[in-house]
Amino acid sequence: MKDKDVPQLSDPTFLSDLAFLTDITQHLNTLNLQLQGPKQAITLMYDCIKNFKCKLSLWAKQLAAGNLAHLLLQCDTVLKQKYKDVGVPEFYTFLSRERYPKIVSAAAEIMTMFGST
């Protein structure tokens, strides 16, 4: 493929599908690692799988409702790095109100419940 154009890399639908596939694969890899290792109790493994199934159900509901904010957020490498660098709650100050209005509003509401003194 060297020196050949890849038209799919210019297709927004393809890129969205690829980002989604990459994201799901990352979550599956995380689950896989949680299920490995010595001294793993079957009850803990069951809890990991049950938790993953709940996440899948939540994601499916959000996608069905047209709520793609969490997917967009996970595709933004700059914001992902910022989250790793500053953590919560400072991370939410870096989000654009125009691009992520629901996330910013929800974060502000939650942060007011747990404000520092």
Strand content: under 5%
Assign an overall shape.
Answer: globular
Q: What is the percent of helical residues?
A: 55-70%
- The structure class reads mainly alpha
Kindly report how far apart the N and C termini lie. 59 Å
What's this model, at a glance?
The chain has 5 helices and no strands.
Key terms:
single chain; 117 residues; mainly alpha
Which secondary structure elements does this structure contain, and how are they paired or packed?
Blueprint lengths: L11 H23 L7 H23 L4 H7 L1 H10 L14 H13 L4
What does this structure look like?
- With 117 residues, the protein is mostly helical.
- It folds into 2 domains: 9-67; 76-117, no CATH class.
- 65% of the residues lie in helices and 0% in strands.
- It is built from 5 helices and no strands.
